[in-house]
Each structure stands twice: as C-alpha cells, then as structure tokens.
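tool=predict chain=A
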Amino acid sequence: MDNGIKLYVVVPCYNEEEVLPETSRRMIELFNKMKSEGLIGGMSRIVFVDDGSKDKTWEIIDALAKAHTEIAGIKLARNAGHQNALLGGLMTVKDECDCAISIDADLQDDINVIPDMIKNYKEGYDVVYGVRNKRDTDTFFKRTTAIGFYKLMSAMGVNIVFNHADYRLMSRRALDALSDFPERNVFLRGMVPLVGYRSTNVYYDRNERFAGESKYPLKKMLSFAFDGITSFSISPIRLITALGAAVCVISIIMAVYALVEKLLGNAGMGWASLMMSIWFIGGVQLLSVGLIGEYIGKLYKEVKRRPRYIIEAYVNETDDAAKE
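tool=predict ok
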C-alpha cells in the first residue's frame, strides 16, 4: 500500500508544443528521484492544463498521458487566461492530492527546489512560495518595472510576496480555503496570501526560457499588473479623490489670485494659462472616469457570475467533475 505524500504538480500551458517534451522528461525524472527517496508516493501526478492552445499542445499532452502513468491532462474549452487555467487545474485536483505545486511549463522556474517545498510541507507549512534570488536574467526594463510593481502593490496595502510569481506549493486545506474565494477577477499572487495559513519561502535562481516565446509581452504584463492593483486595492480611487481635492484647492487659490490681479488692474489676456488649465482639468476628469469605469467593469463581471473556465476533456482523469 502506498502511504507516501500524494503530490500533484499543476502546469498551465498555452501554445507550449516546443517545451512540453523536455518539461515532461525533466519532471518525470524528478518524480522518480523523489519517489525513490520517499518524499512522495507512487500516486503523485503531473497535470498539464491546456488553456485553449492553437498549436499541438493538447495532442502532445494526450500522447504523454497515455505513455506515462505519472502524467494527466486537462483541456479547457477555450483560452481562459493563465490565472484561470492555473486555478482550474488546482480546483480540479484539490480533492485528490495531499498538496499541489503550480509551475509554468517553460522551465524557467527551477524544479530542483520542489523537494525543498515538500520538506517544508512535511514540517507543517501549508503554503510554500518559490521566490527568485535575483533578476539578473531580466532586461533592465523588465527588472525595473517588476520591482516597481511589487513596491507599488505593497504601498497600496496589498499583501504580496516580493519576487514571487505563481510557483508555489499549497496543502489540501489551503486549496480548500482558496476555493472559497468566489471572485471572477483572479489574481492568485494576491489571493493566496489572504488564505492566512502558515507559510514560508524557498529561494532559487530563474533560468532562461528553454524554448518558444514568452506568453507575456509588454501589453499583457501591463494589463496583468493593472488587474492586480484594481482587484486588491481601492487606493487608486482614493488617490483620485485626493487629486480632485488638491485641484479644487488650487482652483480656489487661482480664483483669488485672478480676482486680486483684476482689482489691481494687472490682469492680462491669459489665453495660454486658460488653455493649460482646461487641458489639465479635462485630462484629470477623463483619467478619473476611466479608472472608476475599470472598477465598475470588475463589478459587472463579478455580478454576472459566469464560469471562470470550462473543462472540455480529461486524459488520465484526476477528477470526474469540473469545478467552477
């Protein structure tokens, strides 16, 4: 009878046909090593989640699952986005495992720290975050913007782990707690710390992408960051309120100044200053309306309660019911 820890590694995939053979090979090799050392049991699985890929990702996952008992696959009916695909995989396997690890398919996160995560789990930690030691492999722009993002999130009161992406271990009870979060605007880096169970970090150096292209170009990175900020903080609205108050104060001061100048007979035509004021106030108003609209849009999505993902198919099924 297998009494070892039942570990499921959830790997979201979108157009990853170039990396999947190597990723699966390395993961199976690591699984065999951990089994031989008694860290995990024989029923542990690697679960690839196809997030509506347009290439041969699902065909590769299907073939791998049929060739290796350690591998299972979940196919989403459409592209639901990285966060929803990851959440879908975790929610599908949560009742089948003792703990689950989430990791991207591109082999940039060091899988060799997974044994350390398991050891921390055995010591009683419910959440183990994979945290990067440094960002030497990033471009100057990406490194600067990433550090700025984490600092901005912290300044706005969001509990987020610095230099942590979505590489983490969660126990079954932590996954159960995460399933109680009903929001449709999913930002797992902010949601998981809200679970509140005992947590720790393991540190690693990030590798270069093994093959293929990044699925997070600048536009998606900015959108992801903005979603994270507006999903977990109302500070931007408060900043707009403060800005509006400041503009009102400045307007009163300028009105008094203009009146005094008029009484003293020093008033000029003032065309340039008038135009600058109009453009400034107009810009502030449009920015404010846009930001408030972003929050209203999120409320709109939450109220509709549409499913975050829909599972189309399984291979080596890990569960017989799709979780929403």
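The two ends are 33 Å apart (CA to CA). Strands lie at 7-13, 45-50, 71-76, 99-102, 127-132, 164-171, 199-204, 311-315.
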